Amino acid sequence: MQTGIDPRSLIGRRAFDINGVKIGTVDEVYLDDATGRPEWAAVRTGLFSRDAFVPLEPSEFVEEHLRVPFDKALIKDAPDFGVGRHLSPEQELQLYHHYGLEVPFPDGTADHDFGTLAGEG
Description:
Radius of gyration: 13 Å
Distance between the termini: 22 Å
Number of helices: 2
Strand content: 25-35%
Shape: globular
Mean pLDDT: 85
Order of helices and strands: EEEEEEHHE
Largest sheet: 7 strands, mixed
Number of strands: 7
Helix content: 10-25%
């Protein structure tokens, strides 16, 4: 995702999949504990649905909305960890694997915490 964007500004923005289909609205943004960079967004997928976690890298903030480079079906099938809680390293690894993304650890380990909510601190 582009740098310099306040992650809190994403909350309430609409999110669209790779095909331009609306996924839902961003409810939460999760920051990496080690770097403080935005890592994940929880997107409310419908009125009676749940929040689905989507990776903010390689997503883009375009024309006042979040464009996620994955199909809506894959996003809706993402592991459900609930929102408002800290993501464990194991949960984040499950999300990376779900989306087929490379784990961004320089040494290949996951020995630090993830998922601090934007605005906490």
